[in-house]
Amino acid sequence: MGARRTSIHGEWSSRLAFILAATGSAVGLGNIWRFPYITGENGGGAFVFVYLVCVAAIGIPIMMSEILLGRRGRQSPINTMRTLAQEEGKNAAWQYIGWLGMAAGYLILSFYSVVAGWTLAYVFRTGTGVFEGVTADGATSLFGQFVADPEKLLGWHTIFMVMTIIVVSRGVKSGLEKAVRFLMPLLFLLLLVMVGYAMNTGQFGEALVYLFKPDFTKLSAKGMLTAMGQAFFSLSLGMGAIMIYGSYLSHLASITRTTIVIAIMDTSVALVAGLAIFPIVFANHLTPELGPGMVFKVLPIAFGHMPGGTFFGTLFFLLLVFAAWTSAISLLEPVVTWLVENRGMNRVMASAWAGLVAWVLGLISLLSLNVWAQYKVFGKAFIDLVEFLAANIMLPLGGFLVAVFCAWILPKETSLDELGLGDHFGYRLWRFLARYVAPIAVIVILLFATGIIELKSQQ
Ligand code: TRP
Question: Whose CA is nearest to atom 13 of ligand 1?
Answer without folding.
Answer: 236
